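Encode chain A's predicted structure.
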Amino acid sequence: MTGFTRDEDGRLLIDGLDVAELAESYGTPVYLYSGAGFLSHFSQFRQAVAPKDAPYQTKVHYAVKANSALAILSLLAQAGAGADIVSGGEMQRALQAGVAPDHIVFSGVGKSSDEIRAALSAKIGQINAESPAELHLIADIAADMGVIAPVALRVNVNVDPGSHAKISTGQRNTKFGISTDDGEAERLYHWLCAQDSIKPCGLAVHIGSQLTKLAPFETAYQALLELADRLRENGCDVPQLDLGGGLGVDYNCETTPDFDAYGKMVARIFANRGYDLGFEPGRSIAADQGILVVSTLYLKDGADKQFVIVDGAMNDLIRPTLYEAYHKIEPVLMNGDMSQEIKSGQITADIVGPVCETGDYLGQDRQLPSITSGDYIAVRSAGAYGAVMMSNYNTRPEAAEILVLDGTAHVIRPRRTVADLLALETNPFAAS
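Encoded structure for chain A:
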């Protein structure tokens, strides 16, 4: 069985391997990933948006920012995924992992001249321009290099996705995309089509992350389609509509996102309209395929609540304090029926780390079965925006990352040491 399950003794397993044994072998904090889970979710998404009878051509580009481990990128590339990148560094990762250059889409509002030159030199498939200044720079650089830049225009259709403010990108008051108001996007796309150094790739939209309802997608896609149709009527080449990503996951129940419902909505809007489609899923592929395992250091009774102090911290997983995000948290070993133990409320506590910040917590006011020092605890659904956002705050080395596939645990990122961190610095004032 793939993914995370429990055996009859209450042990948490990852693709059949004992999580506690892996934590014992590799130490904590540690990220554990299900390779089969990544492949399964990618396959399910692709089948939903690109069934054999789909009336359009599709490309699925995995959003590298969700989890950029080289091993995961390689697995997905071998399964047919392209890459959606937002930096030159992510481009190098994707290329090193074996993603074909023409299957790479470069998004993001702040591409530097060096990044644009590198993307054009690598012959990546598409650059999504997000401002007039950027579009003009791409055209100038391409002309200087004597190449044709493949460019899509990312538009802002002013749709509130209904997700957290820090991951909402579809409204007019954000930094993303070209406004569709007052004809700005239309004028800029006409200009784009008139440039000898640019190949028009179409339009792109991405309204945010962690969307759990389809209505905002549909509103955005309808607006995108109307704009594309007007441009075509006026003689512009609009070969593809890039629909972005953003499909959310249920961090509480860990149920698979409804890829089929999403795919049917896409088909209903775009069938027989003559556009190729692009997609950039990230969180929906990665989140439920990873956990962060930490060890309990101490139990502490505060004045108003209890604390479970663990060796994992906000530098390892910043989502709870940055986004007020919820992650299901449970002991790696559960004795008896888990649901009954939690219902009995044997302990209600904040799960906190060693970092010197009040915001250093992985979960607050959680009901857990009895916990003792040395117990392993799993923070679920940590496969997306977990390890990629780690830091060295408080000079804490990053956690290791382990990927399990076909019954074998692979170290895909070794645990760093303090010596590794210090070696990155130079000190001209050190005593001789």
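The two ends are 58 Å apart (CA to CA).
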